[in-house]
Amino acid sequence: MVKNIKTALSLVIALFPALFFSQEIKQLTANEVAELALQNHQQLKVSAQNIDIAKQNTEVVKLQKLPTITASTSQFYLGNSVAIDKDFSNSTTIPMPHYGSSYAVQATQLIFKGGLVNKSIEMAGLREQLSNLDLEKNKQDVKFLVISNYLDVYKILNQEEVFQNNKKLAQERLKNIQKFYQQGMVTRNEVIRGELAIKNLDQGILTLANNKKILNYNLSIALGLPTDTEIIPIESLDVKDSGIGMDYYINLAHDSNPLIKSAKTNIDVADKNIEIIKTDKMPTVAGFGGYTLQRPITNRNPVIDMYGGGWQTGVSLSYNIDNLFKTKERVKLGVLQKNQAHDAMTLTQQNIDMSVNAAYVKYQESIQQADIMNDAKRLAEENYKITEAKYLNQLAVQAEMIDAQNQKLQSELDYANAEINVLYQYYNLLKSTGTL
Predict the structure, then answer these.
(1) Whole-number Å distance between alpha carbons of 426 and 258
(2) Are 88 and 284 a contacting pair, CB within 8 Å?
(3) What stretch or stretches form a coiled coil here (predicted)?
(4) What is the mean predicted confidence (pLDDT) over 286-301?
């Protein structure tokens, strides 16, 4: 009975493998891939935690506005006191209560320090902005990475289609060669050449299939999908915004690129740092208050074994005189750091301008290359048809036929890659502006 059940299950599995080994297929556009990456990519989750840390640090700095309150107690053993004459000739032991204790509460509130607390809070806020901008930059990097992998999958699918189409043609040609061979019109080596051509195509198809598996696995992890998901790109291959002009993208980068925004914020950080340094030139004014309770009372004779309490409140004023000399040098350091931040801003802008210029030129080039490859593909197809007709009429040899097929295959692959390269260069252009 058990054997029959196993046999039945084996038949079901053999007949319906999809029920047991189903693979999820997802058709996605480039924008959908980018959105999934923003939601699920682990790198962005790590970067987002930096923002939470920066926000919490701001809250910690704000605590400086609150008063400092301390409570203390001590329990101690009090030994007897000894009174000695001035000439050390006689001494008298004065008995003391041996158990002693004290309790105290003290509160201090900073009143004035040249705006140090508020400036420190503002500095923490600027650090928070930098964390947000770092996240924006990481988002751009992650989106471009997953879109690049997505386009690689797209490219492989197109290449697979090209290989399969050429394999069908090669199989048809092999059938004709086999007929010629049976009729004694060609030798056996012609058949072998045709079979080898198909094997070469099979090898290319196998390599593409394995590369696609690797890309799908990596892309699925980045998008938070099951690792056996097969991603099918459905992005339109239409040329996007090719006639706007480079000035548009340069201005867009100046307004939107997170690296430029970070450089500007670093200048603000340098300014705020100078303001904080200058607060050292100001006196510190603080209010304080406290209450102390102590036993025994030892400031009278005889000593009284009782608690004596008292409270105090007031304002303290302090000033570090050495800051008159030290602060000046620290301000000079802050000014140098601010000048460096300005130069870094100029350098960042120049690098971004060069990056946008290169990306724009390459995008325009990719469009022109696609047109050239399309023309080459048409010529290669025409050459293949002419050579095939000549071969079927015994006016061309097998080597010419294989050369024509190889040219056709290569031109079709080049055009398929050129179409995807247009999309790649377009998204690279958007990344260079910080608006991907």
Answers:
(1) 19
(2) no
(3) 392-419
(4) 86
